[in-house]
Amino acid sequence: MIEYLIFLSVSAATFALFALGLNLQWGFTGLINFGHVAFMTLGAYTTVLLTLKGVPLLFSTAIGVVVAALLGLVIGFATLRLREDYLGIVTIGTGELIRLVINNQELPVGDRWVSGAFGVQNYAIPFSSTPNLFFQFLMIGVLNLLTFITLFSLWRWVKTAQTSANVALKKEFLLRAVIGIILGLLSIAIDISGTVELYNYNSKAGLMLLALLVLAFVFWRLEFLVKSPWGRVLKSIREDEEVPKALGKNVFWYKLQSLMLGGAIAGIAGALFAWQLSTVYPDNFQPQLTFDGWIMIILGGSGNNIGAILGSVIYYAYDALTREFLPKVIPLDTERVGAFRIMFIGLILMVLMIWRPQGILGKKEELTLGK
Q1: Is 131 helix (H, G, I), strand (E, B) or coil?
Q2: Which of 117, 220, 281, 364 lies 20 to 30 Å from 41 when distance is taken between CA atoms?
Q3: What is 320-355 written as a DSSP string?
Q4: In the prediction, which pLDDT does 199 show?
Q5: CA-CA distance, 225 to 10, in Å (whole number)?
Q6: Each residue of 332-365: pLDDT tens digit?
């Protein structure tokens, strides 16, 4: 049970990063990206292939992030001056193109060339070897500190929506309080599980700590950026790009920055995804991953970084619970249960779009759908 919770924590943190990158592009800037998985693919493959060439993990990951950002630069120069729907078409085509090229080309795996369809194995993974006792306790201390900061941040986030006579604010406070309690309890459970597994040393717990630290850092910096003048320009572009143009802003350059930064964040998620899998194949990067990211944003609320993380948590909680308990409730074979799970989450999304189209934490006044 503890190991499964750690696995889900790594998955949720990885795809929360993935969703944060997509949320920057769509939720804050209004850029339609249906091929976000392309950035993840390049980040993952660049990192593992350079690692097999002997490049240190930190440098190979940094290069993977840069390559993913450069893909955003190329796509941006080709499409950002066109209409939004062309961007969506180009991005989904780029994602599939990269996957198919990798699948049909030989890759430099170490000192030999191997068909991409055979996948890449035996690459270095962070914290794969057992550290000394001092470093183990240091990792446990960092995890506990991160949990304390998370709980404190959740308390402050709930407190900012204090109750008042306004009915809307009361609903907002209750919603935040419920979400804060759930995420707080989940953080404590992850902290306890991680502490146990780090003390007995499980390499997956080390990877979980790394994923959570990266997620916390990216979230912190994104929150700063989207509340800065730069972020306000992105929001104005999302609402009506003619307004920032009239104020002398270079709209194309701001869009390009958003596409590149969102792609770079997805590149980091790709490295974490590859480390969690420990073996990567082109079919690990199907277009479905992009639409999983869209589901997370729609659930949590676009234009809200906490919403992107919440959407990832809800998605993986749903995935784990239905995978575990649904076959015991509904007497169907594996294939039909899988189809039912997809159908049911589609139903949830339909109800959510009717009841709360802006998502759980989204703001209705910032809703861009239908504009």
Answers
A1: coil
A2: 220
A3: HHHHHHHHHHS---HHHHHHHHHHHHHHHHHHHHHH
A4: 92
A5: 25
A6: 777 777 777 788 888 888 888 788 888 888 877 6
